[in-house]
Design brief:
Layout (H helix, E strand, L loop, with lengths): L2 E2 L12 E2 L7 E2 H25 L28 H11 L2 E2 L3 H5 L2 H5 L3 H5 L8 E3 L7 E2 L2 H13 L7 E5 L5 H14 L13 H10 L17 E5 L3 H4 L3 H10 L3 E5 L9 E3 L4 H4 L4 E2 L3 E3 L6 H18 L7 H7 E2 L1 H9 L3 H8 L3 H13 L3 E5 L1 H4 L4 H14 L9 E4 L6 H6 L8 H11 L11 H10 L4 E5 L3 H4 L3 H9 L3 E6 L12 E6 L7 E3 L2 E3 L1 E4 L4 E5 L13 H12 L8 H6 L1 H11 L6 H5 L5 E2 L3 H5 L9 E2 L15 E6 L4 E2 L2 E2 L9 E2 L4 E4 L1 H7 L6 E6 L8 E9 L6 E5 L24 E7 L8
Parallel strand pairs: 1-4, 3-10, 7-16, 8-9, 8-14, 9-12, 13-24, 14-15, 16-17, 17-18, 25-32, 29-31
Antiparallel strand pairs: 2-28, 5-6, 5-18, 10-11, 19-20, 21-22, 22-23, 25-33, 26-27, 29-32, 30-31, 30-33
Helix pairs in contact: 1-2, 6-24, 7-24, 8-18, 12-15, 12-16, 12-18, 21-23
């Protein structure tokens, strides 16, 4: 079955093709083609059928891409284009042979693109790079665990190690991973949530007592109004489009708030319906507000002020007074604060006309049931926490919390990042969890908070972190300030990556480095007690089982659970009362402990075997109960801030292309935005190009403008004239990470500010090579 790595050509950015005409609809027949063509080409008919027909099914495996929830009634083809690409990328039978490591020094691999690295195939054997050498070389599993164990046990303090987690890690592996780390003696558990939805958790935790969505999947079809903010579902969670289509068919109004006119917010041609193949499909957004980057907070405040003004004009008829009186605090303070809101400042911050904001307010006032949903276009700003608090304010004013068809809906971008947090992957878990964990395993967990992702880079840079261990992910590829992250990782003594395929983080290493290959979610996990399944939690707190369906690509691959348990046996042994060997043999034993430690997971083994799994309790959603210090939801006062743009500069956001998931690049095209055969582009409005004296197609150097005087620059990027918001620009992630200073973070959450980067575009210093 396994095939050796193929020849993969690197893209030549000089060959890039730009249509200049972004699409106005998504999916349809092209969506089907771009789902199936890679699957059949790279996996073959049999493996493609075994995987795709099991994807997101109740007896199959959960998609390793986004965390969009599954409907109660599953279709035969319960997957989207990017879900199919994710499965193809992981389940490919192409493998990296032992000779690869002798042929490719690490220094050469570092020059390769993320696309080339990922296309080399699956990792199948542990490999080790000794200090002072430039090649990985195969080692046995026992040798690999000995290297890690000796290094960890030799540190002067447990806090000199940090343990990162990707959102693809299962609940079972995550629970054991955090147990191992805390048994080792540290809370250094940064994760990918630090870089994406940490702002949502902070804001919602402080206002309504839970950092998760307060809706269920079915609430979309029950809503009167859905406001979609800072989000591109057509690329980042395409199955959401089906829920939006159902909502429109049930009579909902949809408003899109975004700096870019994304095709996935305009029209959806559902490929599983006749009208999606031969008809027009479904028009989605009834109103598009092309907000200026950083202007979302001002927009929410302006709408809330209009709601309060409407109440003042017609007392007792607009606000949900009973809900506010029984369940909320802070109304009077909010009213007083918004009474002085400067309308001119709002219009400058948002770039909108007053009439556009009036229309949104009118839609909100006419709707009895409202959902506001958002993603990283909201969370990756300096004032992200305050902005999300303003979203909560607007929802609370009219009781849009804890009733069908209404609520707050942060959409998680990775399949189990929410489940990992539930299982304890956080550097500052609450005392109740830590006490339960200590009681269950008869030890005293560390009490000091650990470090997050940004602080991890700082401490590696400064020599405080000596060992970096990653359960999945691509840490140096995903984090901000790329050059600083690279230098920090190279300052460690040992870096360890538990991975399915190659990525940038395997090429930027500590003095010593290990890669430990692991099973993918698509693969059958056979242990001593039989085939195992794992569990995951989606973005609406539904927990369900995931069963691999295809034979592993190599016989000696270990599961994430097996890797963690064997590492724990080597490092912490019986210092805690944990049956590490038993956990590897039978994952039910892990779930028995989860049931005793994790709130809401009682009787876990029974509930996870129910048809469709189970839903974790959620106070605001289930009973309008709020786990805040006062027991009430908090309306908050937040000072208006917006991003100032000095003359001659633009505000740049990073974003994904359609052919990628996070830092994984499936291809070098972005067909909905009209880009082919390249990624090194910057999208700028034609009006801004004229103002700056630049031309469509010109090559520029993009300089980040910050007071630290570090010249962060992307060179030779092609300018694409594009209908962005005025004063705003966009470039692809992770390439644009180099422009974001490490210390540019959201207040409170420490999330990198990747959606408001002040840049200056200058004609390229060196002309691009032309083929």
């Amino acid at each position: 079955m396994a095939r050796k790595n193929p020849k993969v050509e690197e893209v030549n950015e000089a060959d890039i093709e730009v249509t200049g005409h972004p699409k106005t609809w998504v999916a349809g027949v092209p969506g089907v083609y771009h789902s199936m063509e890679p699957a059949l080409t790279h996996m073959g008919v049999s493996r493609a059928a075994k995987t795709l027909l099991a994807l997101n099914q109740k007896d199959g495996f959960d998609c390793m891409s986004c965390a969009w929830p599954d409907p109660g009634h599953r279709k035969t083809f319960e997957f989207c284009e990017n879900g199919a690409k994710a499965v193809t990328w992981e389940a490919t039978p192409v493998v990296i042979g032992s000779e690869f490591w002798a042929e490719h020094p690490v220094s050469e691999l570092r020059q390769r693109s993320e696309y080339w690295l990922g296309m080399q195939g699956r990792l199948t054997e542990p490999v080790y790079k000794p200090a002072g050498e430039d090649h990985y070389r195969p080692v046995s599993w026992d040798q690999a665990f000995t290297i890690v164990g000796d290094k960890l046990k030799g540190l002067a303090s447990s806090d000199q190690a940090t343990f990162y987690t990707s959102g693809r890690t299962s609940n079972e592996a995550a629970f054991l991973y955090q147990l191992f780390v805390r048994a080792y003696g540290t809370n250094n558990l940064p994760d990918c949530s630090n870089m994406c939805h940490e702002s949502s958790g902070w804001a919602m935790g402080q206002t309504i007592g839970v950092g998760k969505a307060t809706i269920a999947y079915d609430d979309f079809a029950k809503a009167d109004l859905i406001i979609i903010m800072g989000q591109n579902p057509g690329t980042n969670h395409p199955r959401m489009l089906t829920a939006l289509e159902e909502a429109k068919e049930a009579g909902a109004s949809i408003v899109a708030v975004n700096p870019l006119p994304e095709a996935g917010l305009m029209r959806y041609k559902n490929p599983q319906k006749v009208k999606g193949i031969v008809g027009r499909g479904t028009d989605l957004a009834d109103q598009f507000l092309q907000v200026r980057l950083g202007g979302d907070m001002a927009l929410m405040q302006a709408v809330s002020k209009r709601v309060l003004d409407a109440e003042a004009a017609n007392p007792g008829t607009v606000l949900d007074h009973q809900f506010l009186a029984e369940h909320c605090e802070g109304l009077e303070e909010l009213q007083a604060h918004l009474a002085g809101l400067d309308e001119a400042a709002v219009l400058r911050a948002t770039g909108l006309r007053a009439e556009e904001i009036d229309e949104l307010a009118d839609r909100y006032l006419r709707a009895d049931k409202v959902i506001i949903t958002w993603a990283m276009g909201i969370t990756q700003h300096k004032n992200a926490v305050a902005t999300i608090k303003e979203i909560i304010n607007l929802l609370l004013l009219r009781g849009n919390m804890g009733k069908p068809g209404a609520g707050a809906s942060p959409i998680r971008g990775h399949s189990n990042v929410q489940g990992d947090r539930t299982m304890g992957i956080w550097e500052q878990m609450p005392p109740a969890f830590m006490d339960a964990l200590g009681k269950e395993f008869s030890f005293d967990p560390p009490h000091e908070h650990g470090i997050d992702a940004v602080e991890t880079v700082r401490q590696m840079r400064d020599g405080g972190i000596k060992v970096f261990v990653a359960m999945g992910g691509n840490f140096v590829g995903a984090i901000s300030d790329t050059d600083a992250a690279f230098a920090a990782m190279e300052n460690t003594d040992l870096s360890v990556q538990i991975s399915t395929k190659l990525n940038r983080s395997h090429t930027v290493t500590g003095a010593e480095a290990l890669i430990l290959p692991t099973l993918g979610r698509t693969e059958i996990d056979m242990q001593e007690s039989g085939a195992q399944f794992v569990s995951v939690e989606d973005t609406v707190s539904a927990v369900h089982a995931s069963h691999g369906t295809v034979r592993p690509v190599a016989p000696d691959l270990l599961s994430e659970v097996a890797i963690v348990t064997r590492l724990a046996r080597k490092v912490v042994g019986d210092s805690v009362q944990a049956d590490w060997a038993g956990f590897e043999k039978n994952y039910d034993l892990i779930r028995d402990h989860i049931a005793h430690v994790v709130s809401g997971c009682e009787d876990y083994n029974r509930k996870i075997r129910q048809d469709g799994g189970f839903v974790l309790p959620n106070g605001p959603r289930d009973s309008r109960e709020f786990n805040t210090p006062t027991g009430k939801a908090m309306l908050t006062v937040n000072e208006l801030e917006h991003v100032e743009r000095p003359a001659g500069t633009l505000i740049l956001q990073s974003m994904r292309s359609h052919d990628q998931f996070n830092t994984t690049i499936y291809g070098n095209n972005d067909r909905y935005r009209g880009i082919k055969k390249g990624r090194e582009v910057v999208f700028v409005s034609p009006e801004d190009l004229a103002e700056l004296g630049l031309n469509d197609g010109q090559h520029v150097d993009i300089h980040g403008i910050y007071q630290d005087n570090v010249d962060r620059v992307l060179r030779n990027f092609r300018v694409v004239s594009y209908p962005t918001a005025r004063g705003c620009a966009a470039a692809y992630y992770p390439e644009a990470n180099v422009l974001v200073p490490l210390d540019s973070v959201a207040e409170g959450s420490q999330t990198p500010v990747s959606k408001a980067v002040i840049v200056r575009l200058e004609p390229a210093a060196v002309a691009p090579a032309v083929t």
